[in-house]
C-alpha cells in the first residue's frame, strides 16, 4: 500500500515562506519522478516541481521563477519544497505525487495534458494573503 505523509502547508502573508515535506512509502518503481502539483478552485492541475530518482534532475513550473527549491533525502522517498517570496496566486492545495519513468518536464506537464499521476497524497492547503 502506497502511503503519503505530507506536511508544511498553512497561512502566510505575501512575501513569506513555507516549507512542504512529503514522505512516500510502499511503491517499487526503479525510476520515478516525485514532486508536487497544485490545484486552485476552478483551475486545472499545475505542476510545481519534481525531482527524478535516477539522476536527481529537477524541474519547476514557469511561474516559480526561482522562488521555490526542491530537495530530497538520498533515497528520494522524502522530498521538501522550500517556497519563498510567496504570492496570493500561489494559493492552492498542494499535492505530493509520484509518477514512474518520467522526466521532471514530463511531470510538470501532466496536469496540463490531463494525465493522471500514479500516486498522490491527500494534499496540503497553502494560503497566501495580500
What does this structure look like?
8% of the residues lie in helices and 48% in strands. The protein contains one helix and eleven strands; from the N terminus they run βββββββββαββ. Strands 2, 4, 5, 6, 9, 10 and 11 form a seven-stranded mixed sheet that branches. A four-stranded antiparallel sheet has the order 1-3-8-7, with no helix packed on it. The protein is globular, with a radius of gyration of 13 Å. The relative contact order is 0.31. The mean pLDDT is 95.
Shape: globular
Termini Cα gap: 40 Å
Please report which band the strand proportion falls in: under 5%, 5-15%, 15-25%, 25-35%, 35-45% or over 45%.
over 45%
Query: Could you list the spans in which at least 5 consecutive residues all have pLDDT below 50?
Result: none
What is the helix tally?
1
Q: Whole-number radius of gyration?
A: 13 Å
List the helices and strands in order.
EEEEEEEEEHEE
Quickly give the structural class: mainly beta
Q: Could you give a short account of the major beta sheet?
A: 7 strands, mixed
- Number-wise, the strands total 11
Mean pLDDT across all amino acids: 95
| Helix content class | under 10%
